[in-house]
Amino acid sequence: TIANQLRISQPEVSRILRKIQNFPDLLNRTPREVILELHAEKITHEEMMRELMSWNYTFAKDAEPANPEGALTRGDWDEIVDAVHRDLIDVADYEELLRVVHPTAA
Asked: For the packed helices 10-22 and 31-39, what is the interaxial angle rounded to 10 degrees?
């Protein structure tokens, strides 16, 4: 199943697909949804990479900067890192995205 291939729950797959189908104009896409659309064969690899390379990413930051033990708030770049760990995108795609988003880090 798609859920098994993506290592997510079937209800999450259903929610994402229903959201895309029922409310395309209201859809606030996330990098994760773009990647999952590739695996659901709704977009091509080239379309996925083009969209992810042009994304205006947010990054994790301190929720409470004055608290040294405070939690971090996630950014949408974390979804790219998570996708690599879940084998949803390969390392070559990650490195290409990293070169575009963080040119000095690659």
From this structure: 100
What's the maximum distance between 2 C-alpha atoms anywhere in the chain? 45
**Coil, strand or helix: which one is 21?**
helix
The model's pTM is 0.68
Burial class (CB in 10 A: 0-12, 13-18, 19+), 92: exposed
CA distance 20 to 39: 14
Report helix angle 77-85 to 31-39, nearest 10: 40
Q: What is the pLDDT of residues 28-59, one digit of tens each?
A: 789 999 999 999 999 999 999 999 999 999 88
Cβ neighbours around 43 below 10 Å, total? 17
